[in-house]
Amino acid sequence: MKLLVVGSGGREHAIAKKLLESKDVEKVFVAPGNDGMTLDGLDLINIGISEHSKLIDFVKANDIAWTFIGPDDALAAGIVDDFNAAGLKAFGPTKAAAELEWSKDFAKEIMVKYDVPTAAYGTFSDFEEAKAYIEEKGAPIVVKADGLALGKGVVVAETVEQAVEAAHEMLLDNKFGDSGARVVIEEFLDGEEFSLFAFVNGDKFYIMPTAQDHKRAYDGDKGPNTGGMGAYAPVPHLPQSVVDTAVDTIVKPVLEGMIKEGRPYLGVLYAGLILTADGPKVIEFNSRFGDPETQIILPRLTSDFAQNITDILDGKKPAITWTDKGVTLGVVVASNGYPLAYEKGVKLPAKTEGDIITYYAGAKFAENGQDLLSNGGRVYMLVATADTVKDGQNIIYSQLNKQNTEGLFYRNDIGSKALKD
């Protein structure tokens, strides 16, 4: 069996690497991928994620069994619809189902309609109306671009002035283009955040281990929001009862609601949740695997990944199994300046071998065809499984301390929330 993964980042590296481990998989192609993936035997295809017709032609010409769609913008552009229209199998939601991610206002409407716990909110396209709402509600308050913004379109404002400035940047300064033409302004929810993922086909779903992402650029959750600087799974201090409540009050009603709306869901559903004093509530939905959570969840999968996805696509119950050993922890290494302006072309350390996995997000070969150079904001991620979070930190940070990371940076506290009393 030959498979295709669409995307180029660390998430797609983890998906493709795991698929290649499956006993019936002969080859995994990644379009367009990045050069670091070739070190794990993956085959890169120079076709962009927006080139749907070229991707479809490639799949047909190369007898690809099915395609796994990684990025949110590809899903929002209707890539699954185009594959389905061509008679091809693709694992991911249609454009209509993926609106759970590409419109925060739509997601809020679904949650309100189907009684899913989330923050109170208002949606605005007029700046003066947004400003009045912020001034009425006070701070802290959260301002979000309605559309996709690479994980950077959310401002948690500690003052009214900060919130008004964020709304001004989105609505009047066009900071996020069309994605910020509307803003969703939410009440601030206090509590601990965690990620809950599920493989989904309609009303059938299969929950994955919990994870906790670290969105801020710098230690102590300081600095701007990024796409994610590290993660660990499972979240050891999160009771199973909380997960059970989230499944019953969030995952089930949303998936059933999407069917009632004529938008049945297929693919990976991500629920970004926060454990409040009133129980788990939704911060956001994503219509695909998270990055960097994918890189620390998939190493915990002990069943045949390709067979699992094949079964879900065919409407069969998959035999999904996970390790119950310890914790898997990963730290992202990024280019200096990320998530703002950053330089490319920094020489990267040699790929780790053994128990520490290296996933590449933004890497390309130098002209000599041997040295890997940085080619993105987030560059690579080191991942290890250990008995405890502390052990995982020791393994990863010991390795990072040996590497030459000049021109790059990483957080030194990934997983530390799990160590607090």
From TrEMBL:
The keyword ATP-binding applies. One of its GO terms (molecular function) is phosphoribosylamine-glycine ligase activity. PROSITE patterns: ATP_GRASP, GARS. It catalyses: 5-phospho-beta-D-ribosylamine + glycine + ATP = N(1)-(5-phospho-beta-D-ribosyl)glycinamide + ADP + phosphate + H(+). Its cofactor is Mg(2+); Mn(2+). Transmembrane segments: none annotated. Pathway: Purine metabolism; IMP biosynthesis via de novo pathway; N(1)-(5-phospho-D-ribosyl)glycinamide from 5-phospho-alpha-D-ribose 1-diphosphate: step 2/2. Coiled coil: none annotated. InterPro entries: ATP-grasp, ATP_grasp_subdomain_1, PreATP-grasp_dom_sf, PRibGlycinamid_synth_ATP-grasp, PRibGlycinamide_synth, PRibGlycinamide_synth_C-dom, PRibGlycinamide_synth_C_sf, PRibGlycinamide_synth_CS. Residues 108-314 form the ATP-grasp domain. Its EC number is 6.3.4.13. Belongs to the GARS family. This is Phosphoribosylamine--glycine ligase. It comes from Streptococcus taonis. The gene is purD.
